[in-house]
């Protein structure tokens, strides 16, 4: 035996085994596992030690180019911003989905081909282990790729079906902006959130919750304005066809409330030729007349889907200010009835609410008044805006997308969604979220002063500049001690002053 001949395990053990062939010497059993592992780590890497090495080099090069391009895009636009902007473009989503599909197939090929090329010949032992190793490697790549393709398809379908296209009429698209700042021509955007309470036990659609989200597009500062559902004598603008029937506003007393405007308009569709949703349009018009704001967009949320929406977001953390009952109603004598026969409360304190409790916290009126309810609704809305977690959203995304598609209706043009991504990031990164309370100390729902409401809204949106400090008087020396500074006058806000959510919630 030459000095270069390795001592085989058969000689050491005294067991006679056939000598290794040249192929076996070139591809020992350990080579198989290394090649499969390298192919799993990077497409083409496992092929570099086989006769398919040129193909391996090409795959490695393409992989590095894709990684480099992706990192450059993320570095230029930021990880979160780039991901969100891609998520609102059906075209980008489709191309990314195709890329993931093709890349996944090539990656699987770069695992299977090295496995075939380095399979140890004449080796019967360990065959099951080798097959299981390759199968596990393929699963590591195939499972995430399949999930990614599914999520991308779900998102593209959601954007296509939930948002108006550019060709739609009355889509209130952005104008005057630029690529650098799409909101340059729009200093403020006002969005009406409508919580609809349609159901089998309801007559028509009741706008159970109305809230205007007014956002400064430069700073991200946002004001939440809750509109009482039980306002009487609400004004109807002259350009709304309902004004021909109700020229002095909706003025038939406590039977004609704000939350009935939607159904009122839908019952008179003959007055709205060519209008897809007279109820929605009329609700927007009336809220605009109440607040003095031009409502740019609206989002209609079916409250039946609210529970699933919050659950899909991983819940919402709320600083509960008051004890609120769930699964309850109020009897005529003021006592509380438990609809499920079990007494249950949401207790004060900071806690994370699931969808069921968040809905009851937002809507419960048992033992409370509408103003307390409105405050809680603003708190929940602000918390959802502030706490949206991309990780939780992604984890539960198919469920979330189904909820949104079936229960949320937007009138925002699809072409403006990248601008809205930018605006949402401004709100989350640096904007304040304030709440404008309309309580029974400010207005009477039975006899509201709409001029005062509009004044308070305007005041909240245009706060006075900070006071200019008075020049300090010349300092005078004192022989003993230091003079105590005069206390600064404390400012007591009005009952209707806008306050940060951290204070009111």
Q: Can you characterise this structure?
A:
- With 505 residues, the protein is α+β, with helices and mostly antiparallel strands.
- It has two domains: 20-162, no CATH class; 188-457, Aminopeptidase (3-Layer(aba) Sandwich).
- 44% of the residues lie in helices and 12% in strands.
- The chain has 17 helices and 13 strands.
- The strands form four sheets. It has a seven-stranded mixed β-sheet, sandwiched between helices.
- Mean pLDDT is 81; it is low at 1-13 and 475-493.
Fraction in helix: 40-55%
Number of helices: 17
Give me the side-by-side strand order of the main sheet: 11-4-1-2-3-12-13
| Count of domain modules | 2
Q: If classified by CATH, what would the architecture of the largest domain be? A: 3-Layer(aba) Sandwich
**What fraction of residues sit in β-strands?**
5-15%
Secondary structure blueprint with pairings:
Layout: H1 9-13, H2 22-26, H3 29-41, H4 53-77, H5 79-87, H6 90-117, H7 127-162, E1 188-196, E2 207-216, E3 222-226, H8 261-266, H9 278-291, E4 297-302, H10 306-312, E5 316-320, E6 324-325, E7 328-330, E8 336-338, E9 345-346, E10 349-353, H11 355-363, H12 370-387, H13 390-395, H14 397-407, E11 408-410, H15 417-429, E12 433-436, H16 450-461, E13 499-500, H17 501-504
Parallel strand pairs: 1-4, 3-12
Antiparallel strand pairs: 1-2, 2-3, 4-11, 5-10, 6-9, 7-8, 12-13
Helix pairs in contact: 3-6, 3-7, 4-5, 5-15, 6-7, 7-14, 10-11, 10-14, 11-12
